[in-house]
Structures are given as C-alpha cells and as structure tokens.
Amino acid sequence: MSLRGIWAVFRKEFRENLRDKRTLLSALVFGPVISPILVAALVQFSISHAETQSDENIVVAVTHSENAPNLIDYLSARGVDIEKVDLDEAGARNAVANQTHKIVLEVPADFGTRLQEGQPAPVILYSDSSRGFERRGVGRVRALVSNYGIEIAQLRFLARGIDPISVLPISVQEIDVSTPTGRSVLVLNMMTYLVLLSMMFGGLYLAIDATAGERERGSLEVLLTSPVPREHLAYGKICAAAVYMLISLVLTVTMFAIAMSFVGLEQLGITANLGPAAALQLIGCCAPLILFGAAYLTIISALTKTTREAHTYLQLMITIPTMPLIFAGILGLQSNLGLMFVPFLGQHLLMTTVVRAEEILPLHILVSVGSTLALGAVLTYIAGRLYRREALLG
Amino acid sequence: MLEARGLVKSFGKIAAVRDVSFSARDGQITGLLGPNGAGKSTTLRMLYTVLAPDAGDAFIDGRSVAADPLAARRSIGVLSHGAGVYSNLTARENIAYFGELHGMSRAERAARAAELIDMLEMQPFADRLAKGFSQGQKLKTALARALVHRPRNVLLDEPTNGLDVMAVRNLRKLLGQLRDAGHCVLFSSHVMQEVDHLCDEVVVINGGQVVAAGALADIRAMSANSKLEDAFVSLMHGESGDGK
To answer: What distances in angstroms separate CA B226 from CA A190, B200, B220, B222, B229, one per listed residue?
Structure first.
C-alpha cells in the first residue's frame, strides 16, 4: 500500500492552512497565548486581593457617631477607619447605592438612653451585598459590633454577680482548611482543562476546512477523482490536523510554564512543578491524545453538510470529551487505574500528578497511552470509512 | 474512450438516472445535452467514479469503473461543476498538487505545470493565490489541474457556466486542441449553442434516459429540424408526448 497520497494530502493541507488566518489564530494565538495569560492574571489577582483584604483597614462611614462614642472608640481600636458623616436614612441608602460610601453605620439618637435602660439598642448597618468584594468588610464590622455587645453583656452579668462564662455555653472555633491546598486544586484543574481544550482548538479550523470546507467549495469532488484511495485522503487530513494540534499543545504548555513562573503560586500554597522537564512530561502525557482528537474532529466534519453546520456542532462537540474533567473536579476524583482508560480524563489526571510533583505509576502511563492510541486508531479507521461514503459529497 | 452501459442511479425515491447507455470515442468531442435535472451530472459523476451506479457499469478505456475505480481514475481528467479550486494555494500549486496525487515526481509536475500555464495563457496569475481569481481564471486553473497527468479522457460538467464570451471562446479552442490531439472529450451542457459549435457527437438526455444519440447532423435529421434548438425541443416533446 502506497502512502504517497497521504503524504501529498498532508503537505497540501499543512501548507494551505499556514496561509489561513483563522487556523493560525486558533492554533497559535487563542489557546496558547491568551489562556495562560488569563489564568496567570486570575491567579495573580486572587492572590493580591486575598492579601489586601485581610490586612487593610475597613473604612466605615458613621452617621451620628456622637451618640455612641465608646462604640466608635472600640471599632477604631480594631482596624476600622471611622469617617464621620451626617446622613439621614435615605441619604445613607443613596450613599451606599452610589458607592460614595461602601459601608454606612447609623447610630440612632436613642442609642445611649436605651443602652442605659437595659433595652436592646439598635444600630443600622447599610451595605450592598451584591458587591462581593465588600462582603468580608461588612462581616467584620458586624462581628465587631456584636462582640462589643457581648462585652457589655458580660459586664452587666459581672455587676449582678453572675459568672459571664455561664451564659456562653457554646464557643465556635472556625478552622478554614480550604486554603491553601483546596484553592490549588482549582487552579490546577483549570490549567489542565485549558491545555486540553487549547490543543483541540488547534486542529478545529483545519478539520472543518479540510472536509466540510472543501466540500462546500466544490474541490472535494475533483479530489475524489484522483487515484488515491479515499481513506488515504482522510488519513492525510487527520495527520495535518494532528500536527497543528501538536504545535498548539507545545506552545500552550510552554506559555503556561512561562506565565506561571511570574505568578506567586507559592503564596497559594502550591508548589507547582512547571520547569522545562515537567513541561516536556506534560506534552508527553497529552501527545497520544492528538490522534484521537484529530480523528474525532474529522469525523464530525465529515458528517455535517456545510462549514456553518460543522462550526455549530464542533463548538458543542469539542466540549463533550472534556466533560469527564469537570465531573472529576466536582467529585474530587483521584488517579486510579480505571480512570486511565478514559481519554482526556486520563491525561488530565496524569498532568495533575506531574504538576504536583507526585510519583507517576508506569502502569498508569501505559494504560492511558495504550487505550488513547487504540481509541484514536478506531476513530481514524471510522473517518476513513466515512470518506468512502457517497454521502460525503453532501 | 468512455462507455456507459445501462447506468441506473437513484437518490432515495428519486430516480436520477433510469437507463443511460452511450459511448464517447477518442478524437471526438461528445456533448451530453439535456434540460436542468435531466440526469447529466449524475451520469458524469458515475463515469468519473465519485458515484457508484445502482445497476449497469461504465468503462474507461475498457476498464470497469465498478471493478477497479483507482485504475479508471488514472486515465480521466475531471472538471467538476463549479470548478472549485483551493483559494489559499496559487494556481501553480493547485496544478502541482493534483500532479502529486497522480504520482508524478516533483520535477515532472513542475515541468507539466509550467507547460499547462503556457498553454492556457495563465502566466499573469499563475503565482497568485486563487483567493481573488475571476471565474475565468478559476476555470483555467481547474482545467489545468484536470489535464496535469495527461489523461486520455477529459470529462467536463457544465464548463461554460458563468463565463464571459472571451473565456468561452478560449475554452472552445482548447477543447478543439484536445480533440485534435486524440483525446476523448465529454462535456455536459444545457446550452444549445455550445453543443452546436463544439460537438461531433451528441447524446440527448431527458428524465434520466437517452432520448437521442448520434452525429449532430443525424440528430437534426431525426427530428426533421435544421436547427439544433428546434430539434431539441421536438425531442423533449416527443419524450413527454403522453398528453402532458
């Protein structure tokens, strides 16, 4: 069997798509450049934001602060910057809505007298809960105000000869274990997901153009009159898509390694292993998936009638193989031998292991590579069979 | 030499070709004439092997299309409907690609592409990307592509569609040259004048069947009309003369 036809088709598709702006953008720019920068920026932002939020003083506008001087002193001593203002209820609401003040605390005129009479003394706290970043600030003010209340209560009990401890039957101690390891899982999942998606997008336009596009422009019919077995035409096109996917994969992993080196990942408690050796291992993990992906895209393109239809389906279909990753993320699945049989999921778990600098089991690699290549071969065969159908011409 | 023997092809319930037999000889231009939807394109597509007939067979230089399509493809050059060329390749690259698919060496296909570019007067646009080509430039590129492997038989589906007068004249001249060089040329058309100007033999198809076939003069004589157009109309009526 001569492979001359496969080579000829491969070279032509490779060269033609090198001149296609859309193929180049999706293979070389969108995935490889934009997604690592986006993730790095997101991580950097969440790190810097988390830092500032816990350290910074909260600014609270207090209206009628003269009604509660002790409370104001109490808050000032605990990291709250008091800004004295004079607003009525409507004014306070507007100030928060317009963001002239983020948090407004109103002390009513009868605060002091009610407190002295032993009646509940109200204070009013205005904030906008739809603005997520201020929620923690409001929480801190609310906690401080109620702590102030508890301290007053304890003094009252003491004055009446009661041990204040006896009215605090339960004490809650919060320990947040989500950080830092929990957050690191999220970042890692996002990265491996984008690497796989970016790899698929590298071959997307070529796969559509080489089958659905060629049919639409009317060149496919003449191509089918050449003395090359039809399945060889399909194999040549799959090879060309695969090479673009490989380029996209190598670029994306490289860019991730570079982008993440600029981000203070260790501040999230992640010791990410993203050096040159790890990058090579990541590429090695994903490379077997390329045949599977290229054949998958070509099959869908061969089953659709127009490029428009192919685009519509492929945008959806491209996310389907990555679904197991999302489930794995939600369910918190750990690497095991059974999951290695699943394309995409196996690669995702192997990549996660590499990035965490954990030990990779050779058997896992063997199963993942073997099953992915076998499934890729099956899909390639199916794509070849689809090229033999008359319906290919639409 | 092309030969169709009892070709039948249906798409679902629609019978596109019911029974088509004819032959097209070397050194002649044969026109496949018929109204839109008569089955011309389907017949041609079976001859150039992209569709498999439901019944019957076609022979290219005596080789069965059904039994050995790859061998049949080596001796045909095809200009399909619409003449799609690769817009991100130059005209020269379009031609060379098909040379490569036909197994020609790099030197061989470069030389042949240059020869065809000269022959079809394509020099001004030979090394430009096909993206901005006019209809006539696209046709020349597609024609050169079809001839790159020096096929004995040339099949063209509605080649004059969308061409201006000058381009049509050039095409006529070229088809004449191919005939004189001993090629078998088969083309389909629904335009009377084309067939009248060019053909030695005519096969008239209507409703998926051959209505008349023979030399131009015979066709005219058959319907007792000196003009082909009148002959054609009378043939169409004869075919559906069952009171429609």
So the answer is: 79, 16, 6, 10, 9
